[in-house]
Amino acid sequence: MMNKLHEFLDRLGFSSEENMLYSILAKRESLSILHLSRISGINRTKVYRIIEKMHQKGLVEEIIDEHKKLVRIAGTDKLELMVKEEEARLIKLRESFPVISKILSENPSLYQPGTKVLFYRGKEGVRSQVWNTLKTKGELLGYSYRPLSELIGKYYEKWYQEWEKRGLRMRDIYSDSYLEGEKTVKQKLDSLEIKSKYIISRYISSKILNITHQMDIYNDIVSVYHWHEGEIFGVEIYNEKIALMQKQMFEIVWKMTA
């Protein structure tokens, strides 16, 4: 239940520290700033600043008890209001998107023919790269190095839900490095136990093909992600011939997994 609360608050835009303090208070009637600091491990001065902001937002209440100032969570009315505001914000964004898309589509750089290479660095960059695969037309072909949620965390769930919503298809080849990573995977959706009509996966021994990085092939794009010992980067290559050759090579390997 607490995991659900953490996830809910995270989606509402709570910072990690606000999330922690609110969750602690949710399990108790009231606490002093000192006790909150000790339980959370956050500096007392910082706890005071965070609680003051949360108080201004109406998320917590301050009470005086025998000359002590205590803090407790407020009613759920404020959380409900925040949910409604988030819903209204998403509706506005969805209504505005067609106009914004039309404005941006007039940028000639988006439709320049020929080859281009885009470079991404860090987790945020790779998240953008992963999201780009939702532009797949037809089928995506891929090689899985390790569970992708190992790199992008909960963002994988959002991507997967959107993948299913759009009815996209993928064939995927994994090897021993993926099986090793799956032992510690926390994102159930990124587990081989989940059978999906949208993603078909096959195993190949690392003795035949040692998969050392993630690769997605879709449309005229070859997208490569690499993460190892803190080094995280990705590359997208836009080139019809390169993508076609990679698709042909994938089909050769795919037959070897049958």
Describe the structure.
By secondary structure, this protein is of the alpha+beta class. The protein has two domains: 72 residues, Winged helix-like DNA-binding domain superfamily/Winged helix DNA-binding domain (Arc Repressor Mutant, subunit A, Orthogonal Bundle); 144 residues, Endonuclease, Chain A (2-Layer Sandwich), CATH 3.30.870. 47% of the residues lie in helices and 22% in strands. It contains ten helices and ten strands. The strands form two sheets. A seven-stranded mixed sheet has the order 4-10-9-8-5-6-7. Strands 1-3-2 form a three-stranded antiparallel sheet. Helix 1 crosses helix 2 and helix 3 crosses helix 4. The longest helix is centred in the middle third of the chain and has 29 residues. The two termini are 42 Å apart.
What layout of secondary structure does this protein have?
Elements: H1 2-11, H2 16-26, E1 31-32, H3 33-40, H4 44-56, E2 60-65, E3 68-73, H5 77-105, E4 116-121, H6 122-132, E5 139-144, H7 149-152, H8 155-165, E6 169-174, H9 176-182, E7 199-203, E8 214-218, E9 221-228, E10 231-238, H10 240-257
Parallel strand pairs: 5-6, 6-7
Antiparallel strand pairs: 1-3, 2-3, 4-10, 5-8, 8-9, 9-10
Helix pairs in contact: 1-2, 3-4
| Number of helices, counting only DSSP H or I runs of 4 residues or more | 10
Write down the Rg: 23 Å
- What is the CATH superfamily of the largest domain? Endonuclease Chain A
What is the averaged pLDDT score?
Answer: 85
| CATH fold node name of the largest domain | Endonuclease, Chain A
Helix content: 40-55%
The total tally of domains equals 2
In CATH, the architecture of the largest domain is 2-Layer Sandwich
Which geometry do the CA atoms define? Answer: elongated
The CATH C-level name of the largest domain is Alpha Beta
β-strand number? 10
How widely separated are the two ends?
42 Å
- Major sheet: order of its strands? 4-10-9-8-5-6-7
Strand content of the residues, in percent? 15-25%
Assign the structural class, choosing from mainly alpha, mainly beta, alpha/beta, alpha+beta, or little secondary structure: alpha+beta
Please describe the biggest sheet, giving its number of strands, its sense, and whether it closes into a barrel: 7 strands, mixed
Identify low-pLDDT runs.
none
Secondary-structure element string: HHEHHEEHEHEHHEHEEEEH
